[in-house]
Write a structure and sequence with these properties.
- The complex is a heterodimer of chains A (184) and B (383).
- With 184 residues, chain A is mainly α.
- Chain A has a domain of 64 residues.
- Chain A has 4 helices and no strands.
- The longest helix of chain A has 45 residues.
- The radius of gyration of chain A is 33 Å and the shape is elongated.
- The two termini of chain A are 54 Å apart.
- With 383 residues, chain B is α/β, with parallel strands linked by helices.
- Chain B folds into 2 domains: 213 residues, Quinone Oxidoreductase, Chain A, domain 1, CATH 3.90.180; 156 residues, 3-Layer(aba) Sandwich (Rossmann fold), CATH 3.40.50.720.
- In chain B, the strands form 4 sheets. In chain B, strands 3, 4, 5, 8, 9, 16 and 17 form a 7-stranded mixed beta sheet that branches.
- In chain B, helix 5 links the parallel strand 10 and strand 11.
- Chain B starts with a strand and ends in a 6-residue tail after the last strand.
- Classes of the chains: A mainly alpha (184), B alpha/beta (383).
- Chains A and B meet through helix 2 and helix 3 of A and helix 5, strand 12, helix 7, strand 14 and helix 11 of B.
- Bound molecules: nicotinamide-adenine-dinucleotide and zinc ion (ZN) (2 copies).
Chain lengths: 184, 383
Amino acid sequence: MNREPEVTTPETILRRSGYQSMEPVRRPSYWGVDLDPARRPGVPGHREPRPMANTRFPPEPQRGMPAAPMHGRTNKTMPPVFGTAVPLRGLSGAIRKYAYSMPDHDPSHWLLKLLGDRVDSWEYHAKKYLPLGLAVAGLGFILSSRASESRGLGRRKPRSLPVTRWGGEARRREWSRREWAPSH
Amino acid sequence: MRALTYEGPYRVAVRNKPEPRIEHPQDGIVRVTSAAICGSDLHLLHGLVPDTRIGFTFGHEFTGIVEEVGPNAQGIKPGDRVMLPFQIFCGGCYYCTRGLSACCENTNPATDAGTGIYGYSHTMGGYDGGQAEYVRVPFIGVDAEKIPEDVDDLDALPITDAFSTGYQGAEMCDLRGGETVLVLGAGPVGLFAMWSAWAMGAGRVIAVDLENYRLQFARDWLGVETINFKEHDLVTIVKGMTEGRGADATIEAVGCEASGSPVHRALGVYAKLEAGSPQAINFAIHATRKGGVISLIGAYGPPFNGVDIGTFMNKAQTMRTGQASVKRYMPHLLEHVRAGRIKPSTVFTHRCSLEDAPRAYHTFAQKKDGCVKVALFPNGNLH
Ligand SMILES: NC(=O)c1ccc[n+]([C@@H]2O[C@H](COP(=O)([O-])OP(=O)(O)OC[C@H]3O[C@@H](n4cnc5c(N)ncnc54)[C@H](O)[C@@H]3O)[C@@H](O)[C@H]2O)c1
Ligand SMILES: [Zn+2]
Ligand SMILES: [Zn+2]
C-alpha cells in the first residue's frame, strides 16, 4: 500500500465524477483518534508472547464426553476443554461420526457433515410428525378398506397413469438410454 | 431454564432445557442479562454452518452476571457484571500469548480452522450459546471482561463481537490517513467498521448495501457516502469516484449469504454446492485498486467457493482475514465509549424478551421493519 497517500478533502470528493451521496460528507468529531498505529490494539501483529491475565497454563483436562468428536488428523491431540451441548445420536449421529473420522483438510469431512445436518432435520421432523402421520395413515387405511369392502373384495382397477400438464398421460420410462446420449 | 433452540433450517423455538453446569475447574456460569442476534446467527439459522444440531442454543454476543465459578477460575467472583468475547480461549497457548485469542488451540476438537465459539455449531466446539437464561463460560477468569460501572450493558454488548470485528476489519486495512475505504455491507459489523475507518483517519468512507434503510442509517449515524448496488453498477461507480482506480481498501462485512449474483445464491445458499455465495468478495476484488487491501471479515465456511482469485492475483492485492481477537480490543473500545465518541447501543433498533426471539430472528433475517440489530433480555428487561 502507498505509504504516503494523497489526503482527500471533502472538497475533492465533491468534485469527483461518480459522487453519489445526497449530503456533503462530514468528517466526524472523532476523526483520526486512532490515526497513530500505536493506538491500535492489534498493531504490531507480532509481539513478545506473554500469558493473558489470570491464566493457569497448561489447563487441567476436562472430564466427560465431548459433543463434537475430534477430527481425524492422526497427529492431533484432544484439547483440554470442549463443548458438550448436543451429543451425537441416531442416523445423523452415525454420519457425523464418520465425517469426523476424516481430517478437516479433506472436503469429504465437510460434505458429510452437511449431509448429517440434513438427516438430523429429517429425523427430527419425521419424529415430530410421526404420531400425526400414523393417525392419518390408520384412518386412511380403515376408510379405504371400508370402501373396497363395499365395492367388492380385492377387485382393483389397474392404477391409471398421472395426467401431465402436456395433456397426455405420462409415459413410463419409454425413452431409451440412447436418446439421452449426445449425438455425434 | 428457557433457551432458544435450533429446530432445523429456518426454524428456532424457545424451549426448556437443563441449566448448564461447571464442567471444568476454570469454568463459570453466567446469568445472561442481554444477548444480541448477530448476522452470523443467520448463517446458522439458514443451515449453512456444518454440524448445527437440532436442539442447539445459539448466541455468541452476551453480557451477564457471574453466578458461580469453578475452583480454579482466578480474578473473578459471583456477582461480577461481565461481557464475554464471542470466542472461548485459554490465555496461555501459542496464539493466546500473542494476543490472537481468535486462534486459540485449546478449545475446539472439531477442526483446526477455528477456536471454540459460544452457540456456533459443533464445528466450533459444541458450546451452547447465550440466547438463554444461563450459559457455561469456560476459562471465565481469562475470558470475561468486567463492565465498568458507568457503561450500560447495551453499550458493552456490541463490543463482544460486532464492534470489535468492525474495528479489527478497519485495522487490517493499515490506514495511514486519507485513504478511500469501501465498506461492503451496512449491517452492524459494517457500521462499526465505518466508524473505525473514520477513527483511523480514512479520507472517505463509502458504504455499500442493497437495503436503502440501512444505507440511510449509515448516512445518518456516521456521515458516510452510500451506494446501493441494486441501483447502480457498483464497480463502475466506485472507479468513477476514485479517478478510475478503485478504493484503497475494502472491508467485506457481508459474508456467505451475499446478494448480487443469482448464480452464486442458487449454488451456494440454496443448493449448498459451494460454501455460500462469494459475491461480496468478488465485488471487493473488482472495486479495490491494484495493490490495495481487502479486509475480509464476513463469515464463510469450508470447503470451497467461486472466488475470482485470478483477478485478485493480477491486481497485486493483499487480503487480510480473520475472526476478531475480541479480547485485545475490549479495554480500548470501552475507552472510546466512556469518552463519548460512540454510543454502540444505537444499533439496537429492536429490543425484546427471549420469548419473542423466533419472531425477532425473522424480522432481522428478512430485513423488515427497519431492523439493524436485535437485543434480547433473557432475564427480564434491563431497566
Ligand atoms: N470475522 C468475525 O469475527 C465476524 C464477527 C461477526 C460477524 N461476522 C460476519 O460479518 C458479516 C456481517 O454481519 P452483520 O451482523 O453485519 O450481518 P447482516 O446480515 O446484518 O449484514 C450484512 C449486510 O450485507 C448486505 N449485503 C448483502 N449482499 C451484499 C453485497 N453483495 N454487497 C454489499 N452488501 C451486501 C445485507 O443487505 C446486509 O445489510 C456476517 O457474515 C457475519 O457472519 C464476522
Ligand atoms: Zn457474530
Ligand atoms: Zn489459547
